[in-house]
Amino acid sequence: MLKTFNSSARSCRAMPRFLPTLCSRLHEKSGFEIRNAVRMHSVGSHTHTHDHGSDKEMLELVKALKKEGKSPELKLAWLGLYSNIGLAAAKGIGGVALQSSILVADAAHQLGDTLSDLVTLATLKICSKKPTQKYPAGFGKWETIGTFTVSGLLVAVSVGIAHSSLSRLYTILFPYAGSEHTHIGHSHNPSQLLFEHPFMALGLIFGSVVLKEWLFRKTRTVAQKTDSNILLANAWHHRADALTGMVSLLALSGTYFLNAPWLDPFFGCLVSIVVFSAGFNSSKKAFLQLLDRAPSEELRIAVTDALLKGEKLPYKIVTILGNAHAMHVIISVPPSFTSQQSSELAQKVEKTVLDAIPALSSCIVTPLSSDSNQVHRWQHLNGSSGEHSHPSHEHTH
Question: Does residue 1 sit within a domain?
Answer without folding.
Answer: no
